[in-house]
Amino acid sequence: MSDHIPMRVAVVGATGFQGGAVARLLVERNHRVRTLSRRPAGDRPPLPGVACASGDLADAEDVRALFEGATHAAVVMPLVYEAERVARYARNIAAAARDAGVRRIVYNANTRVPARVTSLAAFETRRVAEEVLRDGGVPLVVVRPPMYLDNLFSPWNAPALVNDGVLACPLPARTPVAWLSHEDLAEAVYGALTADGVEGRTFDVGGARTLTGDELAEAFARGLGRSVRYEPLDPSVFEQGLARVLGAEAAAGVSGVYRYMASGAEPLLMAGDGGAAARALSPAPAPVEDWVARRPWQVWAEEATGTPSS
């Protein structure tokens, strides 16, 4: 389908990590990409080949301008956890996509979502957005990723891993997780934009295999070529570190997912899907050790010691 016909894609969230990975992949494959950002032009990350306009998802006219001429859309919501605000974003997106004649929206929920309603804004705001988009009159595909490997390549995790061989994560060691990279997420979103017969479906992307904490540490050890041990991190400590980067509200929302998983309420929520998403949408995600081997981990040794690593 769209694999051979250039798409004009409105990518909501392209200035973030996940939407940015999607935007880059689309550009690499010769599709036209537009996005919207509240940040001043000088504060935006470089996105070669992506047209970026100033605007706000809360402004219906800004969103309408983003979608003008678009044939497809890839959407990931910002780290906002106020239900009405998120619902407003989703309504504006749905209306603009419908009016523009968009053929398909792919919504990345940014997390798996429990089957039952919870008290956590991190899940329920993503559920609200999905429901609004599903009722918006444009064919929808939903992808729900598990945990991101890229979160482990971070200032609150990587220095201890590089210097001490400690892989600290706010999940119990026995929790099974299908870890996914942003690059593999982008492949899944691309497949959801282009594959036939997937409209209306929801995919728990992430591959067939799940890893416990100890198994994750073993995969990191193979990728790094050194001994690595797993240590569960207190979600409160994780939230404090994240707040310094994202702010208190966003950090509380993100850490809520880890708290839910640590509670044992739904231990298989982030587990693999038996490979169903890969068969329908994209190649199977790369092994964790391959992803690890490609990261420039030495930057974190420099960060921690002030001198380049050998």
Task: Kindly list the characteristics that best describe this protein.
UDP-galactose 4-epimerase, domain 1; disordered C terminus; alpha/beta; single chain; two-stranded parallel sheet; globular; Rossmann fold; 9 strands; seven-stranded parallel β-sheet; 310 residues
Please sum up the structure shown.
The chain is an alpha/beta fold. 43% of the residues lie in helices and 13% in strands. It has two domains: 8-144, NAD(P)-binding Rossmann-like Domain (Rossmann fold, 3-Layer(aba) Sandwich); 149-177 and 208-272 and 286-305, Alpha-Beta Complex (UDP-galactose 4-epimerase, domain 1), CATH 3.90.25.
Report what the structure shows.
This protein is an alpha/beta fold and 310 residues long. The chain has two domains: 137 residues, NAD(P)-binding Rossmann-like Domain (Rossmann fold); 114 residues, UDP-galactose 4-epimerase, domain 1. 43% of the residues lie in helices and 13% in strands. It is built from twelve helices and nine strands. The strands form two sheets. It has a seven-stranded parallel β-sheet, with helices on both faces. It has a two-stranded parallel sheet with strand order 7-9. β5, α4 and β6 form a beta-alpha-beta unit. α7 packs across α11. The longest helix is centred in the N-terminal third of the chain and has 18 residues. The radius of gyration is 19 Å and the shape is globular.
